[in-house]
Amino acid sequence: MSSTKPTSSEDILGQKYDRCLADLLVKSVGVVASVIFFRRRTWPIALSTGFGAGAAYADCDRSFNPARIPGTRIIPQSEVKQ
């Protein structure tokens, strides 16, 4: 008989924060590309950082608030058929 330990809410929250941080780092790779391709110009660096951070923030917000995903409907417990 295998018994699985339930996952605590702190672990779930930690995993979500880890995913958000990793997503921010991955999406900020555009900064490195901007530095390589546009050496002396600052606007591409600022633009790519803003786009990457904004996309990562939106993904993280959807991770913590799934009700904000378009087309998602929250069904009250009283309406759920058992």
List descriptors:
82 residues; mainly alpha; 61% helix; 0% strand; elongated
Low-confidence stretches: none
Number of helices: 3
**Strand residue content:** under 5%
Name the structural class. mainly alpha
Give a quick account of the main beta sheet: strands, pairing sense, barrel closure: none
Helical content (DSSP H or I, runs of 4+): 55-70%
Measure the end-to-end span. Answer: 28 Å
Rounded radius of gyration (Å) = 19 Å
Number of strands: 0
Please tell me the overall pLDDT. 80
- Envelope shape: elongated
Order of helices and strands: HHH
Question: What report would you give on this structure?
Answer:
The longest helix is centred in the middle third of the chain and has 22 residues, at 43-64. The chain is elongated, with a radius of gyration of 19 Å. The protein contains three helices and no strands. The chain has a domain at 12-64. It has 82 residues and is mostly helical. It has helices at residues 9-27, 29-37, 43-64. It starts with 8 loop residues before the first helix and ends in an 18-residue tail after the last helix.
Write the layout of secondary structure elements.
Layout: H1 9-27, H2 29-37, H3 43-64
Helix pairs in contact: 1-3, 2-3
Short overview:
The protein is mainly α and 82 residues long. Helix content is 61%, strand content 0%.
